[in-house]
């Protein structure tokens, strides 16, 4: 089952069920007006939404054309956004840039931070920066949305709590990362609004692409039409989503609608940009720059600038974007 | 105007208007079923709620008895909870304990962290800890709830965005603070569910107790019936709430319903526990312990343990609790 949120005058938008081929959609208003409402009552809402999806796919309901440009983030605002760090090669590559104190690689327990969840960015909304000198980077990630999770859950409980899957762009202002981390209170100013892909999907509906609590699909990142990377999110994910949920709930329960990020997707390799059509590359610019420093003695790929365009999406076996594309221009604050 | 949220089967509870003497309340359901709804549409909702409050206070509406024990947090869940650090003497006293890297006192820009906002604790709900050896501490703070704030607001815009005021207990697991900060990603496991007082109030309705973007009232902290502190929240608050909102919105806008904490209330003095009836004392145990270490060479006041009871409330000139009391027992997770 695929779900999306159309933009509306209401801050939570309007929940729609999307056809399996992502061409049509139908309002889910009679079941739940918005996604958080469905997550609050998932046991009742999910079967009704599945039924609506089946009718839409069978043609019993005509629906309306599905236009990703009309979507907001699936949850335009959420009660919790926790970003983990599942990929060790990402940490390894950017550790020096981040000024992190962890002398050993964090391979025993995943790092995670509490992100801002009050106003996410729509898939095609501009990324608005207060100035053009903050080393804007994008970080392509897989995320899950959970049901309620008790404190200290088992891995099984954590895995069973995964309701929906999609991808996001954890927008980062690299120049502020060091400041944030050195003040000792963690990420804050360096992490403005996160962007989400138009469509969320149940794990079951992803077939073999979802297994072992991981999404086994390449996530493609293009900057101004140039391929920067297409690492496979199922490769090198040392901590899976069950691990991340268990860790997040170590000292507290998690409410329904909690979004957990798997961290910047990163596959081990020794490539640098530009990559070939079948290359792996990078899901964030900071990693590309680190690889360049190692190979050439200096970083060559610039961070994103005002006017740049960044497109991110998970790619299915048929070559199509599974959750729809994030496609954003960088703009300066008025 | 005073507002509160009664517990109900719905996750957001039920919004009520509370009489000025806090003895009666009336459902605000016909205006907004829950507080976030009112904040989403404040320009329309606030005058209607004020009108209802006036009718309740005039006796034109009988209402029902107001029982703080039936309340949830005013926002049982919120889209954003940002905790600042406005009181320099708190930072000064606990800096060594926290392992913070800031060599100089953070007097130029306030520190802040993104807190968990998915499931706050009701004023009289137990504080549930996963084990009894995590150095449980309470931190009494003033908080404001804001309307929407644009990125890079002026101090005037920030101040005007303050919709409601109350106090909270920013529950902390001191033993995990160092872990959280040393991993470089900031507070996470050390900050379980925050507790809020039963009542929120508009700044205007606080009279002279609210001025200069600060709450000028003592906030009393009692552990097992013993007075630990009653520092005045208007004293020593180096960064006021306008400063904190401006800082929070440096690289992003803030959505309506954002909660901003002023940091652990702390007044400069050289007292140690026990304090006299007119003493100042401390709003968190860590500060009391630091003062003891300085005076006696070792900390004497233990952190909170399972079975302890912690009560916190802001005290008005008439000696009554302004926002109602937080009164919680510490319990071990089942």
From TrEMBL, chains A, B:
The keyword Nucleotide-binding does not apply. Residues 81-316 form the Fumarylacetoacetase-like C-terminal domain. GO terms for molecular function: hydrolase activity. The keyword Ribonucleoprotein does not apply. Residues 1-77 form the Fumarylacetoacetase N-terminal domain. InterPro entries: FAA_hydro_N (IPR041072), Fumarylacetoacetase-like_C (IPR011234), Fumarylacetoacetase_C_sf (IPR036663). SUPFAM superfamilies: FAH. It comes from the Bacteria. Keywords: Hydrolase. Gene3D superfamilies: Fumarylacetoacetase-like, C-terminal domain (3.90.850.10). This is Fumarylacetoacetate hydrolase family protein.
